[in-house]
Amino acid sequence: MKILMPNHFPLQGSGSGIYTMNVATELVEAGHEVMVIVPDHQPVDGYPFPVKTIIFSNGKNNNPQLDFNFPCFTTHPQSATTFYELSDEQLQAYLNAWEQAFTEAIEKFKPDVIHAHHVWVTPYVARKTGLPYIISCHGTDLMGFKEAQDQVARVYNAADVSVAPSRIEPFGLVAVEALACGTPVVATNAGGLPDFINEEVGALVPMEDPESLASAIIYEIKNGTKQTKGVYANQYAFENFTWSQQVARMVKLYKDAIKK
């Protein structure tokens, strides 16, 4: 299958960018063909898939396609420009650049399906192409832990319990990472967390209820639930949340979109 994957942000420096990179890599390893479209300040290469780059200005690069930096919902390590700051003319130039990139990519790559990221410009342009498409919705992009991943695992392993007291949580990757390390998770009943946190791997408490949150944390520690829940939590995470499993689910979505 040939998948075109546009994202409003570069492959490095944001949560959705890293997500796009990982999904595209897994798809290629599974035998699919992928082309990614992203903004950046210079052409992007070095990945196991082709990357079509829309070149924005950072004030230092030569001959950018657009004379302003790529806009963000909040901020990005490579850009502090937000969509709110753009003039009408810049917004139109931004939209035109994406439409041109889609046209050129489709003509060259001839995708079977489009996997757009963020409910913003890319799904709007994808819809106009007439091709099947799906959308991944992302929350605010985060830089994440910048040290080596084995250090992240050591932090999780050292903890008796991991706590995710979120008010808004599109998914809850930090909770999955803790489970994979065999650490029970106490989380609030918000966003995507209730979809996979339960009494077998931790505890769910009401949002904005600090007493219940404190009680659940104390219970997990006092009762040593890392010993009783940890093995299952690890198994649960690896049986349901590896990249290969996520990509297999996405491929099914791609096929369903193409059928429709």
Structure explained in plain terms:
There is one protein chain. The chain has 260 residues and is an alpha/beta fold. The chain has two domains: 2-142, Glycogen Phosphorylase B (Rossmann fold, 3-Layer(aba) Sandwich); 149-240, 3-Layer(aba) Sandwich (Rossmann fold), CATH 3.40.50.2000. Helices cover 42% and strands 15% of the residues. It contains eight helices and eight strands. The strands form two sheets. The chain has a five-stranded parallel β-sheet, sandwiched between helices. It has a three-stranded parallel β-sheet with strand order 6-7-8. Strand 4, helix 3 (121-129) and strand 5 (133-136) form a beta-alpha-beta unit. The chain is elongated and about 60 Å long. The two termini are 16 Å apart. Residues 140-145 have low confidence and may be disordered.
How is this structure best summarized?
The protein is built from eight helices and eight strands.
Give the oligomeric state of the chains in this entry, treating copies of one chain as homo and distinct chains as hetero: single chain
* Order of neighbouring strands in the sheet with most strands: 3-2-1-4-5
Global mean pLDDT? 90
Are there runs of 5+ residues with pLDDT below 50, and where?
140-145
- The percent of residues in helical segments reads 40-55%
User: What is the third-level CATH name, the topology of the largest domain?
Assistant: Rossmann fold
N-to-C terminal Cα separation, in Å? 16 Å
Fraction of residues in β-strands: 5-15%
| Helical run tally | 8
By DSSP, the count of extended strands is: 8
Overall geometry comes to elongated
Sketch the major β-sheet: 5 strands, parallel
The top level CATH class name of the largest domain? Alpha Beta
Query: What would you call the structural class?
Result: alpha/beta
Give the SSE order as H and E letters.
EHEEHEHEHEHEEHHH
User: What would CATH call the homologous superfamily of the largest domain?
Assistant: Glycogen Phosphorylase B
Give the number of domains.
Answer: 2
State Rg. 21 Å
CATH architecture call of the largest domain: 3-Layer(aba) Sandwich
